[in-house]
């Protein structure tokens, strides 16, 4: 997943719509959390086994919410100067140290 | 960002700790939402301008939470058979159609 | 606010619709968190000052989300045997000890 | 539950600590959402049946989070001029109309 390319395309949408003034890290984190809740909503009344057997429509919906979350996180990381891949790899390496040795 | 490689390493941690039984999509979405709130917590009492000027320590913390969120989403996508990159690209293309033409 | 009366009316709705099997504490906490995000959504692109000057429509919407959150929390507390008023008063007394003496 | 009394005590804590400048509705909604996630965290790896059989320690923890959520919502309602009891009763009456007749 080419994060630089995705971020550039997100910034093009942002700039075309004059949204930069809304894109504080605080607001982008809030927006990501709202999309996350829309993902959680898919599962709220499902049993755990049912959550493994989503319909095609639910799967498409889940994918859309995952997309929204990752896109808002990319925008937030860009504002903060965080390299998302580096952050993800650092956390994974940390988990490997703690839980897989 | 090589999502397949990251997912394989996550699964190695999971299997070494016998966590698969906990990893229903429902639970992984919940876990991702808890990490998201830990990201939001960093910003809750900051003004929008302050949220653009995090300390080095706050930035590191934010990066760790971004890492946790993406890792749980990768695990959830793997359980559901969702291709995260395809989901992100589909959502971005949709946003481009709606907001940048 | 008479919490027993509210809980009894919530249980009447639940039983009329045969929803008890869905009402595990886990699911009710998830549902409350989804409603919470709908409240947060109202504020996500507003500045802090703007958040103090909601329109009548936004205020009505906010009130509806507060209602949903409190109702799901009441249902969850009932399932867990938690007395919401006692829990709220205990936390307030704790805050008074920590922050107001 | 006497909401006016609780709100007055919350305002006394707030004023003693000079926190009013932090208490925009936007920030209070964020803070409530963070506490909500701390409630959700208790349940994230539990099965639904397990979520009905919390330990005494988990129950106390859940009660504390419920307390935090309700207290932040009370502060937010006070800032917005929303009468929480009225909002809760309006939502319950709406649910009764939709689901119990």
UniProtKB/TrEMBL annotation, chains A, B, C, D:
Which GO terms of type biological process are on file?
nucleoside triphosphate catabolic process
Gene3D superfamilies referenced in this protein's UniProt entry, alphabetically: MazG-like
Task: Return any one Pfam family short name.
Answer: MazG-like
- Going by the entry's taxonomy, the superkingdom of the source organism is recorded as Bacteria
GO molecular-function annotation terms? Answer: nucleoside triphosphate diphosphatase activity
- InterPro entries, per this entry? dCTP_Pyrophosphatase, DCTPP
Report TM segments. Answer: none
- Protein's UniProt name: NTP pyrophosphatase, house-cleaning of non-canonical NTPs
């Amino acid at each position: 997943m080419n994060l630089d390319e995705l971020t550039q395309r997100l910034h093009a949408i942002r700039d075309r719509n004059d949204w930069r003034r809304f894109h504080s890290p605080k607001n982008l984190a809030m927006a990501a959390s709202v999309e996350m809740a829309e993902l959680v909503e898919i599962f709220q009344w499902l049993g755990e086994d049912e959550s493994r057997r989503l319909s095609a429509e639910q799967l498409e919906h889940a994918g859309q919410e995952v997309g929204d979350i990752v896109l808002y996180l990319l925008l937030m990381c860009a504002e903060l100067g965080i390299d998302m891949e580096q952050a993800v790899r650092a956390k994974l390496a940390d988990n490997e140290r703690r839980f897989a040795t």
